[in-house]
Write a structure and sequence with these properties.
This protein has about 300 residues and is α+β, with helices and mostly antiparallel strands. The protein contains 13 helices and 10 strands.
Length: about 300
């Protein structure tokens, strides 16, 4: 009976999934017309794949994960309160992603917690700067270094590089922020598994990341209902995404970084968007089958 069940399970596997993780992901990275870095780690089994994972790359808005963690770490330490109020001024408004600049009036007031929601759900640049007003830019970088991620840095407020940069050279080279694929996956792993943030703060951070409304990168090709807690980023020549994805064989931390992309179109079919989507799809399908059935 046991043998019959095993044979049935093996026959049910799609041959396309009976490959190594590297065999699935390496061709995607190689085929992309731009600079790429990938990191994937199943936090339950430890199985992983890394490609150019120690290369320092621009993050675009992906660095807002680090800002979010710093905000909740400072709340845990009593340095600020998530219920503290912030007031929107016309001078605070910056262009790019988000809803505050176009849809909120001068003098609008809301909590730091709500600013964090806007920063992650809509990648709101103005909300990000309001959060950074309270946390400080250098505090984010010091926290990341203390946690073991020295290349994960934010360089300035969004669209305020000329006046707020804490490292003009890195601002020139990487824009808003930098990281490596390995560091970002390590950061996500610590967020998920360590006790650096108490459960109430950890769950709040993960909840924010689960509300990201981007539909063009990681979530794009996944089955409906798959939980992905992530943050993405986009500039003309850069597309990034990183997060935690629930799969049948465990939570997987993954990061896709691209820059110097040939495709600079601001369209859903941008090649960087599609690379992020295809990586997430391959990772999900691979970890949807028990490793004992996919390994030779």
């Amino acid at each position: 009976m046991l043998t019959a069940l095993l044979v049935s399970a093996l026959l049910a596997i799609d041959p396309a999934t009976d490959t190594t993780l590297e065999a699935r992901l390496a061709p995607l990275a190689k085929g992309h017309q731009g600079k790429t870095a990938l990191a994937v780690k199943n936090l339950q089994t430890g199985e992983n794949y890394y490609h150019n994972a120690d290369e320092v790359m621009p993050t675009a808005s992906l660095i807002k994960i680090a800002v979010l963690i710093e905000l909740y770490a400072q709340a845990q330490e009593g340095k600020l309160h998530l219920s503290d109020r912030v007031t929107l001024r016309s001078a605070d408004k910056v262009p790019g992603s988000g809803i505050l600049t176009e849809h909120f009036s001068d003098g609008a007031e809301f909590s730091l917690r709500d600013a964090a929601r806007l920063m992650i759900a809509f990648s709101d640049n103005t909300a990000t700067n309001l959060v950074l007003e309270r946390t400080g830019i250098q505090a984010v970088n010091k926290r990341m270094a203390a946690w073991g991620f020295p290349q994960t840095r934010i360089n300035a407020k969004v669209f305020r590089g000329s006046t707020t940069s804490v490292d003009p050279e890195r601002t020139r080279r990487y824009g808003l922020g930098s990281t490596t694929a390995r560091e970002m996956v390590g950061l996500l792993e610590q967020l998920q598994t360590s006790a650096r943030l108490r459960p109430v703060y950890k769950l709040a951070v993960l909840n924010h990341l689960s509300k990201n409304d981007d539909k063009y990168k990681f979530k794009r090709l996944l089955p409906a209902g798959v939980t992905v807690m992530h943050k993405d980023g986009s500039t003309d020549d850069t597309r990034t995404d990183a997060g935690l994805m629930h799969t049948p064989t465990g939570i997987v931390a993954m990061c896709v970084l691209t820059t110097n992309n040939k495709d600079r179109r601001w369209v859903a079919e941008n090649a960087g968007n599609l690379l992020c989507a295809r990586v997430a799809k391959e990772v999900y399908e691979y970890f949807s089958v028990p490793s004992s059935l996919t390994q030779p």
